[in-house]
Amino acid sequence: MNFRQLEYFLAVANAGQITAAAQQLHMAQPPLSYQIKQLEAELGVTLLNRATTGITLTPAGQLLRDYAQQLVDLRDRADGQVRSLGQGLAGVLSVGVISSSMGATPNAKLRTLTRHYPKVQIRLFEDNTYGLIDRLAKHLIDVAIVRTPFTAPGLASKTLQTESMVAVVPQKYDHFQAATLKVEDLATVPLIVYRRFEHLFQTTFTEKQISPFIACTCDDARTAVQWAEARMGVAIVPRSVAEQATGVTIHVRPIRYQPWRTTLKIVWPADITPSPLVQRFIDSY
């Protein structure tokens, strides 16, 4: 099994037809079919279900597609990093980002970097904090922008910004007298909670002996804001996320509680010296 076979297999798997894949690869169909059959013979499994209407992947084919894509991506990253090792003037930079980092990235310095070095290509991988930390551990990305709290020994980091939590309050639930809320005020409204901070919030509610109604829990802070805009409840999110809200019928109210703070950080493996390209990215923040 070699990279050329894997690339041929990925083309067929993604196109859903050998004919279409052959056209994309600028080759004839018979040689492509032969290469796929050779790959199946080498592995001793059937990778494709062949029919007149097209092809589908067998379970073995689905598994190989996932591994093949990772291998091809790793090869491309290795090739790009080796070629740009000298000065970091060109290459592919794989960056993991969380959804709630949109207030901090991209910034003016990063735009300057990409303008001065037009051969630098940035590939973004979106996931939650622990998903990105796992990608770093597997060397699938170079660097990640994540949000505290998290536990991940073996990572070097650079702090971007620390911010407090705020409440995104639709007019429907805006009966508060003060512009700044206390945690206790949240006991009287349905809450939309970003799952990333669910444990932090529940610990606080238990300590203060209150039991707010958690109307919705979601995996994306932007979704929490959208649901608040739809008057489904009051969203509790980092300030930078709330500032992106566009609804005219909502208010963003600070929450007066010091422990409800979170920090955006750039992280990368501490045991690996950043390449010049990665270091340029880190220095742009």
Automatic annotation (TrEMBL):
GO molecular function, one term: DNA-binding transcription factor activity
Keywords: DNA-binding, Transcription, Transcription regulation
SUPFAM superfamilies: Periplasmic binding protein-like II, Winged helix' DNA-binding domain
PROSITE patterns for this protein: HTH_LYSR (PS50931)
Domain HTH lysR-type: 1-58
Cellular component terms (Gene Ontology): protein-DNA complex
Cited Pfam families: HTH_1, LysR_substrate
Family: Belongs to the LysR transcriptional regulatory family.
Protein name according to UniProt: LysR family transcriptional regulator
Classification of source organism: Bacteria, Bacillati, Bacillota, Bacilli, Lactobacillales
